[in-house]
Design brief:
Length: 446
């Protein structure tokens, strides 16, 4: 048994042990939300660890090509967190704030069932895509490190994540996110040093392609709206123990996101300047598997595992919770919260297993990370204008519904025409904000 296998076994044993130690839930809400008593540190680490396998690959690829300009998407994420920190009290003060799981619950309460179902569908599709990214990235990154089959790598990641989620619930997610967040910040500098010392012939002058100002702006705007209207981010806001804890946690998450993003950008730059990688798409994998000493390879495995699982567990849990609530609404149940509190935790555990298994099956078929990542960001932007705008002005339900439908149609047109990319995905929000601007002007005249 080699060192990397021992690392996987030890890491898996650690997270399962944490799940057993944090297993304290009597109701479905406690299982899915951990008692809604998260401290700022837990909220912040849970937000920062939303950086997953897709970001490891895509951000180093952007840095390989554009240098430090590749940080623009993460800058947008951080600004989105900071914006939510300012308005966290408004989100938590909504009618469903005391019991809501995430964004679809808010939409059902404020916008009505039609818009609520649409927000659920968009959010579910987006975050199921995010889950696919984690499994695909886990397989692609771990395969050269572990020297085993891609499918087996995917199965290992999914099995370990599903196991500790079924046992421990959301408290386990928060506890492991804290450990995973700290480990990332400690391991990345060590791995960067290992890459630098392992480069033969020294670093060559780095020449980055110029990133047009409009692309800078586009990526930043895309990151901002994707973060501000993200169902997993809203879930953490509702899980905080107070408005102040939510706001401080969001700021901690923004700082952690920028710091880790900067280190990933540096890694992408080094992979090109040191001749470690020959293409942007392989920059991270090549940097982690090319000539590193045994100790650094073991650290790289821990980094990848913590990054993949830290996001995969969040998405599995979020999807299971959203799906369970939406199924009740489709059945015509009006008092969803009351039913949820009386339900057996077993049903939620079954949904966790079903979602994890479905994502594994699809991740063995779809392996295009950049394509999946683009769809994820773009889908969230479909609902972003009216969700954020409703926190400041209360439009009529039919106006919200038509705004979202307009954005969804635009999303479909861009996708069919092949024009959808992170550089122009922000265009999806324009129709929504134009309509919202009309609503604001009309409200002021009344």
């Amino acid at each position: 048994m080699n060192n990397t296998s021992l690392v996987i076994i030890a890491y898996s044993a650690l997270v399962v042990a944490i799940s057993i130690a944090t297993r304290k839930h009597k109701t479905v809400d406690e299982y899915l939300m951990g008692g809604r008593n998260a401290s700022p540190a837990y909220v912040g680490s849970a937000l920062f660890t939303l950086v997953g396998g897709g970001e490891l690959v895509t951000l180093t690829a952007l840095a390989y090509t554009y240098g430090w300009a590749g940080l623009s998407l993460f800058l947008g994420y951080a600004l989105g967190f900071a914006f939510l920190a300012i308005i966290a009290g408004r989100i938590r003060a909504s009618d469903t704030g005391a019991k809501a799981l995430s964004l679809p619950d808010y939409a059902h309460q404020v916008f009505g069932p039609t818009a609520g179902h649409l927000v659920f569908l968009v959010s579910f599709a987006a975050f199921f895509s995010m889950l696919l990214i984690q499994f695909v990235a886990g397989g692609q990154i771990l395969q050269p490190l572990l020297k085993i089959d891609y499918s087996l790598c995917v199965l290992i990641v999914a099995f370990v994540a599903a196991t500790y989620l079924v046992i421990g619930g959301f408290r386990t997610v928060l506890a492991t996110d804290m450990i995973q967040g700290v480990s990332r910040l400690l391991l990345m500098p060590l791995l960067i040093l290992a890459v630098v010392f392992g480069i033969k012939g020294g670093l060559q002058p780095f020449s980055a392609e110029p990133l047009p100002l409009m692309v800078w702006v586009s990526l930043t705007i895309t990151g901002f709206f994707a973060a501000a209207s993200s169902a997993d981010v809203w879930q953490r806001i509702y899980a905080a123990r107070s408005d102040k804890a939510a706001s401080r946690g969001l700021l901690i998450g923004a700082a952690g996101m920028l710091l880790f993003g900067a280190m990933l950008v540096l890694l992408g730059i080094l992979s090109k300047a040191g001749g470690v990688a020959l293409s942007p798409d392989s920059a991270f994998v090549d940097a982690m598997s090319s000539g590193l000493p045994a100790w650094a390879t073991s650290l790289a495995v821990i980094l990848v595992l913590s990054t993949i699982m830290g996001t995969a567990d969040t998405e599995i849990f979020l999807l299971a919770g959203m799906l369970g609530r939406e199924l009740l609404r489709v059945r015509g149940v009006r008092d969803v919260d009351s039913i949820i509190y009386r339900q057996s935790v077993t049903k939620s555990r079954v949904l966790v297993i079903v979602i994890a298994g479905s994502a594994v099956a699809l991740s063995l078929i779809f392996r295009e990370l950049i394509t999946i990542y683009t769809w994820l960001l773009s889908a969230i932007l479909v609902i972003s204008p009216m969700v954020l705008g409703s926190l400041f002005i209360k439009p009529k339900q039919w106006q919200v519904q038509w705004s979202m439908i307009l954005n969804l149609l635009l999303f479909i047109v861009l996708a069919v025409m092949g024009w959808l990319s992170p550089e122009n995905a922000y265009l999806i929000v324009i129709p929504g904000f134009i309509l919202f601007g009309v609503l604001v002007l009309r409200a002021r005249r009344m």
